[in-house]
Specification:
- The protein has 207 residues and is an alpha+beta fold.
- It is built from seven helices and eight strands, in the order H-E-E-E-E-H-E-H-H-E-H-E-E-H-H.
- Strand 7 and strand 8 form a beta hairpin.
- 1,3-dihydroxyacetonephosphate binds next to loops.
Length: 207
């Protein structure tokens, strides 16, 4: 993909997320792998109003080399790319239902969300929960890197999801599935549910 096509794709994705109500205000950030580095959304920018010419450019070592000042969480993205060589794009949002789930008290060893539907397992797989750190806190890098080794989808406690994909669309579809499943989970609160069996989950994870 050419530099200009990558810039256009990142801006279009920001607009899509904004139109879908998956981001609001200046919350969230995006990145896309390009030749010799990454394009990252600038800090304090509304993802619905990105300017292709002003996107931040990082080199292959994650150093800021051009455009507006990058997201204060660019390091989050580069630490995921460091352990997921197949990842081409990352989406981080503060999507409402996913954030609500990130604020629940999750017992150790239990899945963050129960395996309610096949599509959740197919698109999100096993969701990792990373303990809370202030947005921009560099200690998040280690925690997210560790979680991302095995998980393409990570939920930051009291904050929101970080989703890696082979492309922007794959990351978007996983984010949308996570957000809808979080909504379903909250809708079902207090009701007796019938999650998928471990065998059914294993079958879906095996592809
Ligand atoms: P940036 O504006 O620096 O990208 O931060 C937004 C955000 O989502 C913080 O969690």
């Amino acid at each position: 993909m050419s530099d200009s096509a990558a810039r256009e794709a990142l801006c279009r994705m920001g607009e899509r997320l904004y139109t879908r109500g998956l981001v609001h205000g200046t919350a969230g950030n995006l990145s896309l792998r390009v030749e010799d580095g990454w394009l990252v959304t600038p800090t304090n920018t509304c993802l619905g109003e990105l300017d292709p010419a002003r996107l931040s450019r990082l080199d292959a070592d994650g150093r800021f080399i051009g455009g507006d000042k990058p997201s204060k969480e660019a390091f989050l993205h580069t630490s995921v790319y460091a352990v997921r060589p197949d990842a081409e794009a990352i989406i981080h949002t503060h999507s409402t239902h996913s954030v609500a789930v990130s604020c629940l008290d999750h017992p150790e060893g239990c899945p963050v969300l129960p395996p309610l539907t096949a599509y959740y397992i197919m698109r999100v797989g096993e969701l990792a929960l990373v303990p809370y750190y202030r947005p921009g806190d560099e200690r998040l890098a280690d925690a997210v890197r560790d979680a991302a080794i095995k998980h393409a989808c990570v939920l930051l406690a009291n904050h929101g999801p970080v989703i890696a994909g082979k492309g922007l669309n794959e990351a978007l579809y996983a984010l949308e599935e996570l957000e809808e499943t979080a909504k379903i989970h909250l809708l079902l609160e207090g009701r007796k549910t019938r999650p998928l069996t471990p065998e059914a989950v294993a079958e879906l994870l095996a592809g």
